[in-house]
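Data availability (excerpt). The following record was deposited with the supplementary files.
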Amino acid sequence: MTSSDKLRELAGHHGVSCTYRGWDTHEHHVSDRTLRTILAALDVPADSDAEIQDSLADVPNVPWRQILPLSLVVVEGERRSFAVHVPHGDPVSVWVVTEDGAEIDADQLDVWVDPRTVDGRLVGRATFAVPDLPLGWHTIHARSNDIEATGTLVVTPARLSTADRVLRSRRWGLAAQLYSVRSRRSWGIGDFADLADLTAVTAGHGGDFVLINPVHAAEPRPPHEPSPYLPSSRRFVDPLYLRVEDIPEVAYLPRKQRRLLDESAQACAKANRKAARLKRDPVFRAKLKVLERIHRVPRGPARQARYAAFCAEGGQALDDFALWCALAEKAGPHRWDERATAPDDPWVERQRVVLAERIDFHRWLQWLCDEQLAAAQVAARAAGMDIGVVHDLAVGVQRDGADAWTLGDALASGVTVGAPPDDFNRNGQNWNQPPWRPDRLCELGYRPYREMLRSVLRHAGGVRIDHILGLFRTWWVPEGSSPTEGAYVRYDHEAMIGILILEAHRAHAVVVGEDLGVFEGWVQDYLAERGVAGTSILWFEKDGDVPRAPETYRQLCLTSVTTHDLPPTSGYLAGEHVSIRSKLGLLEGDLETELAGAASERDAVLGLARDRGLLDDTEDGALTTERRVEALHRLIAASPSALLALSLADAVGERRSQNQPGTIDEYPNWRVPLADADGEAVLIDDLAGHERFARLAEVLSRPDANETHRLT
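Predicted structure:
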């Protein structure tokens, strides 16, 4: 066996795939250099032949060094066992302490395994059965003589029950980029009060949910990262979305401070009717200035008690996040103090005292966000929605953000998350975000992952998991390398998905997995079995080059015509996705060929609608475009999908894309305010009587009408 063969064997033991099947259906081999870098990120020595040999020899010893599994994730009712390791011949007792404090003994099974010499000691193995336990987070305990050990035991549902709830009755909802959706009361950026109003408008049209972009925390002060998919933390919320006037303490501001608030609101509100480009920085700066003054207003006893309870519940994670915010604003962008290596560093501990007031300010901002998100979900339910607000969970976080600092080596260093070359990006993608380390997640009992899920589900009726395929395997790209030079690293998908549906079960929330792109065939079936809905986009649903009949779509699925990574349907029909890429120099072929290919794909889908009598587009002009958009929504309404999504951009006639993949500042990604076909800004106040919105809502609300619908 060559050294390269041994390296690949070692990589396989640690979940690193040495080959992958690309968009071209060919099998590609991962380079030795990439494998060494990824193994180094997992703390596996592999720089030399000797290190590879030693690491290989040590692979079987690793579990024998642990008395108990550090984490064990099982399915409710499943018969499982686990190994316990103690010095050979020593007695051992094992029991489980459940989440509610009950103690249950674990029965030892009659399984003989020969002892093994590890690190010069003879170690024995005993096998125990997992007791019959309720759903939840429990702790395994083991005692052998004077040695004790604990491990995390998670019991997860076999299937998420909310999936069966949505399967019983189809629902449709709105998909919106919250920051882009303003009202007359906004400060130039959509906020949580606007979200509450948007749920009421949607419910008034028969919708059952509003799916929004991630509202994860960004930087604590301007400049503000435009992309909601590149947050500083996925465990906390962005105060940019606060509706300042809804904070109760505003009523008790001194007259001068109230005047400042009113003047700031009026100045920012001037942007509400501007449709060119959103400007987050002046809005965030103005809000922070006012919020600092509101923070100084004394809270009444009841409000103070609620705030204290929120801080106590947030615990160390909230304290560390607020500390990071205070340090980050003090240092400024890209000037992080080198002494602040970790939250428990001695210098950092001193800063907790020095910056105590500012730390409290950032804790308080998170409390306000929590209150206003809760109010939005209450408003959705009060308007008659069963699901309500569906939040979006981003793939990862910034490399120099709050989570990367507070979570330490739970996130890998020296590598970033991305995607291999595919049909939509032949150069691959590098998202510049550190991935979870699967080994450390297990060692930590999946606590960081659980906390993240609980945060996003806290006031949600559902959650969309962006790139859910990353819970099965993630494309790791070595720092400084091209995305084509990456490799897949596997995760314990049964643990990752199991914990996801456990937390969703507890929140009574539906889960939608964005399962587009390159994936293994069995993944979608597995997700469906566990009660996780998939994602279907009309333009992407094909059998070869032929559009699939919507009746063949999946049932447990969120289906829509378009997605935020494409132009709205009006723009897509006009070939905007090709024109934009041409202007930015992103086309791989010549413009004429690309436009012809896009027209062929478009016409094939329109032909499907035409063959069903849903479309008669012999007329010219804007009316034809509106009818085409309506016909395409009638197509998805003919699918069996339990969840249908209407893009708010489609509902008002917007043509501009929110995001152009493969760009940063070349295109105004995530900075496009909601506007209509004429380029005029559309406010929430305009939606209740919006004819186009009403027509598309009716299409999705009454799919039975599509059976007899004919355009003349």
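Summary of structural features: Residues 218 and 232 are 5 Å apart (CA to CA).
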